[in-house]
Amino acid sequence: ERHKACSGSSVRSSSPRALGSAFSSVLAVTAVVVQAVAWLHLWEAAGLTTPATAFTATPTDAGIRATCSEIILRQEVLKDGFHRDLLIKVKFGESIEDLQTCRLLIKQYIPTGLFVDPYELASLRERNITEAVMVSEDFNIEAPNYLSKESEVLIYARQDSQCIDCFQAFLPVHYRYHRPHSKDGETFIVINNPDLLMYCDQEFPILKCWAQSQVAAPCALKNKDICQWNNMKYKSVYKNVTLQVPVGLTIHTSLVCSVTLLITILCSTLILVAVFKYGHFSL
Question: Mind telling me which residue stretches traverse the membrane in this protein (predicted)?
Answer without folding.
Answer: 21-43, 249-276
